[in-house]
Specification:
Layout: H1 4-11, H2 23-44, H3 50-71, E1 74-79, E2 89-94, H4 101-156, H5 161-165, E3 169-175, H6 178-181, E4 193-194, E5 211-212, E6 226-230, E7 233-237, E8 239-240, H7 244-263, E9 273-277, H8 278-324, H9 329-338, H10 340-343, H11 346-362, H12 367-374, H13 383-410, H14 419-425, H15 429-446, H16 451-455, H17 465-491, H18 496-499, H19 501-515, H20 523-537, H21 546-556, H22 559-573, H23 576-579, H24 583-587, H25 589-617, H26 620-644, H27 648-673, H28 696-709, H29 712-717, H30 726-758, E10 770-772
Parallel strand pairs: 3-5
Antiparallel strand pairs: 1-2, 3-9, 4-8, 6-7, 7-10
């Protein structure tokens, strides 16, 4: 039977762990009481006789029980709070002598502290969710009203060709002052959201009521948000600029707005017509829908918080009664049951209301459909997946052993061997990276790191660690199998024109599977991967989220694979595989320069992401992080120049620049990404909160990260191991970089999880589209 402490740890909300009852600490206090009771019992050892035993039994079951019924063992005082934010406070007074009164006093002081902490946190979160619920009600009312106006306008039918183009939008007019038109775009401070400006008369459905903007409101008339007059209030519609389409639309709107303003010093009623169409309302509806889902999830977490804490109080009081032979449970439990976190029903009512609204407006009154969004079913783990993991792992090991034996016999990895064949082997780095990601997922689950929340992944579509291992083992078994067949055909004397196409066909098969539109082989995960790669390639134009820059960091560790993929593409596209002219791509200036550019791209993409995050958030730390990737690009450029002209001057420059870049990267790894090297930490050179119990693991990881960061020294001095081809050495070093990235991934998400837990952030804060504007602003 699993102990309650294990169940409690496994079911609590990880980001709220510090706000839950500290069950382990209370157990330690009870163990302390139990230990002291045993000491007192062993030290006294009273000489008992039969009459004395009878008298003590009568006292125990008669007089003591009578006294307990009379006044009880304890009395819990309730102190009224000075303000509603803090809530009532509880303090326990002992009315009877315990075997060790001091230990009992410490226990109840700790128990009171836990009860007060739970009440205060519950009250704070309840207030936060209630305010969020009120905001969503207002947002929903505005959305319904605007959709009603659109339907009314659409129901009138177009009377002309011009009206036909605008029959699916609500339009309005703006009355602008001359002072407003003189304001420049430099006064606009909000560039994160897209919107439009219109006016609606909510009672009659009239369209075209003028809205006059003040001079101060010009700051809102950027391409990010517009003033809206609806329901008698001035509102702004905010649609985040998350993709290039919205960005370009916003910029084009600004340019057109300036063109109109330049042509007319003052706008009349028909001077500047703006529209709210179905597309904008669809974006607003999507944002509100996501906010409802996150609110419902947060309310579910709060209900779990209440139930688990209530159960923890019951369990710990039972243990106390068992150790002390006192009847404390019924007395203190009445106080816990009447306390705020257990007696308040506002969360339950709000959850029912959210569910009702979601079913009505987002699920067409279909409750089953709504529950798929509000309570998504967890993906069940299949035993067949585990079976196939073992099967393909066995196939991979058997084929790999056979391949090593055959490669040794044929001398494949000696100098002057098949160069293109070795370039193809480095493709396996991708699956090594995938295997390490699966290992990271296992460790994240064991340490209760909510990586799905950090990556903002859907629980119904996210890959489990078994799925990752299955993809990895299947792919590696296929790769090693094709390599074994290819090597067998080469050793039997088949022509290169027939044999050398096999690795290219394998690569083509992987690409086809990746872009396959059929709903097979983890389609949602494949397309999510492709969308992330698209966001990275167009990183300045897309809003950067955690998953995007996390994946871009992975690409920075896969530079050797990207360069070799470019060489493989050149090798097969130019037809060099038919003549075995591998040096053709290396001789051609265009392809050689392209290979150097490929090595710069991951760092460039990551730098652009840092620039975009600074543009969106305004934190200078993103600019400092950008400098890290710029230094990496400078170091890579120095290496390229040294490879072209190997002189002592270039060598010194490479060593200096690479050393500076390495120190920069090590500082950012340890201090920023991992959150370590805190001088005032209770754990020397680490941080206060650690997810792993054994501290030496962190020190070993820091030393290993330092050593692997210095792997660039080999690429400069070209040290080889005996007669092994230098490309084998490069493959080994590239694999070590992937291993370094694997351990970096764990500590990076550990630090991110601790940041979320420090702010008690367990659900996403979805931005709302409609915002009220004060007339005095």
């Amino acid at each position: 039977m699993v102990k309650f402490s294990k169940q409690f740890e496994g079911q609590l909300v990880p980001e709220w762990k510090e706000a839950f009852v500290d069950y382990c600490k209370l157990k330690k206090e009870i163990k302390k009481i139990h230990f002291l009771n045993n000491l007192d019992t062993n030290s006294k050892q009273p000489k008992s006789s039969f009459p004395h035993t009878i008298i003590s039994s009568l006292r125990k079951y008669a007089f003591v029980e009578y006294n307990q019924r009379d006044h009880g063992v304890i009395h819990v005082h309730r102190k009224l709070a000075a303000s509603d934010s803090k809530g009532d406070m509880y303090e326990t007074e002992l009315l009877e002598q315990f075997a060790d009164t001091d230990a009992a006093v410490e226990f109840f002081a700790c128990l009171d502290h836990q009860l007060n902490k739970v009440n205060q946190f519950f009250r704070t979160k309840e207030k936060e969710f209630l305010e969020r619920g009120d905001s969503l009600r207002n947002q929903m009312e505005i959305l319904i009203e605007l959709k009603t106006v659109l339907k009314q306008k659409h129901g009138k039918g177009p009377s002309s060709a011009e009206e036909s183009k605008e029959d699916d939008s609500v339009s309005g007019t703006i009355s602008c002052d001359e002072e407003v038109l003189e304001q420049g775009l430099e006064n606009s401070s909000d560039v994160d959201k897209l919107g439009a400006e219109f006016s609606v008369s909510p009672r009659s459905g009239e369209v075209g009521k003028p809205c006059k903007l003040k001079k101060e409101d010009r700051k809102m008339r950027s391409f990010s948000d517009r003033t809206v007059s609806c329901r008698g209030k001035n509102l702004r519609i905010h649609i985040p600029l998350t993709n290039p389409t919205r960005t370009f639309s916003a910029i084009s709107y600004l340019l057109w707005d300036d063109l109109v303003n330049q042509s007319s010093k003052k706008c009349g009623v028909d001077g500047n017509k703006l529209q709210i169409n179905k597309k904008k309302l669809h974006h607003a509806e999507k944002m509100i829908k996501g906010a409802f889902i996150e609110l419902y999830k947060g309310l579910g977490y709060l209900k779990t918080y209440r139930n688990l804490n209530m159960l923890a109080f019951v369990k710990i009081l039972k243990k106390f009664d068992k150790v002390t032979n006192k009847q404390v449970l019924p007395i203190y439990l009445k106080v816990v049951e009447s306390s705020y976190f257990n007696s308040s029903d506002k969360v339950l009512k709000l959850a029912d209301e959210v569910e009702e609204l979601f079913v009505k407006y987002f699920a067409d009154d279909n409750k089953r459909k709504a529950m798929k969004y509000l309570k998504p079913a967890q993906k069940e783990e299949s035993h067949s997946v585990t079976f196939f993991i073992g099967l393909f792992t066995g196939c991979f090991i058997a084929l790999f052993v056979g391949y090593i034996i055959m490669a040794h016999i044929t001398g494949m990895y000696r100098p002057k061997s098949d160069a293109m064949y070795m370039e193809t082997v480095i493709f396996s780095l991708l699956f090594l990276h995938l295997f390490l990601y699966g290992c990271n997922m296992v460790m994240w689950r064991k340490t209760r790191i909510n990586y799905n929340f950090i990556f903002e992944q859907s629980q119904t579509k996210e890959l489990k660690h078994n799925d990752v291992f299955l993809i990895c083992t299947t792919s590696m078994a296929a790769v090693i199998g094709v390599m074994f067949v290819h090597l067998s055909l080469v050793s039997k004397g088949y022509s290169y024109a027939q044999v050398q196409a096999i690795p290219g066909l394998l690569l083509l098969a992987f690409i086809i599977v990746l872009v396959c539109p059929l709903n097979i082989m983890y389609k949602s995960s494949r397309y999510c991967f492709l969308s992330v790669i698209r966001n990275i390639v167009l990183s300045p134009l897309y809003k950067v989220v955690m998953l995007d820059f996390y994946m871009a960091d992975q690409l920075c560790s896969q530079v050797p694979m990207l360069r070799d993929l470019e060489n493989i593409a050149c090798y097969y596209i130019t037809g060099s595989y038919k003549t075995q002219d591998y040096q053709y791509c290396m001789r051609t200036t265009y392809y050689r320069d392209l290979a150097y550019a490929v090595s710069f791209l991951p760092y460039y993409w990551r730098a652009m992401q840092c620039a975009r995050r600074w543009f969106d958030e305004g934190h200078t730390s993103h600019l400092v992080n950008l400098g890290k990737y710029v230094s990496a690009m400078v170091a890579a450029g120095a290496k390229v120049a040294y490879e072209k002209e190997k002189s002592a001057g270039w060598l010194c420059l490479v060593v200096v620049v690479s050393s500076v870049a390495t120190l920069y990267q090590l500082y950012w790894d340890f201090v920023k990404d991992w959150g370590l090297l805190q001088l005032n930490s209770k754990n020397p050179w680490l941080r206060d909160e650690l997810m792993l119990r054994k501290k030496f693991i962190y020190y070993i990881s820091m030393g290993l990260n330092l050593i692997l960061r210095l792997a660039w020294l080999q690429s400069v001095f070209h040290y080889n191991f005996g007669r092994v081809d230098y490309r084998v050495t490069m493959l080994f070093l590239a694999a070590l970089e992937v291993v370094r990235r694997g351990q970096w991934n764990f500590y990076r998400l550990e630090n991110e999880h601790l940041n979320n837990a420090g702010k008690f952030r367990a659900v996403k804060t979805v931005p709302l589209p409609f915002h009220e504007v004060d007339d005095q602003d």
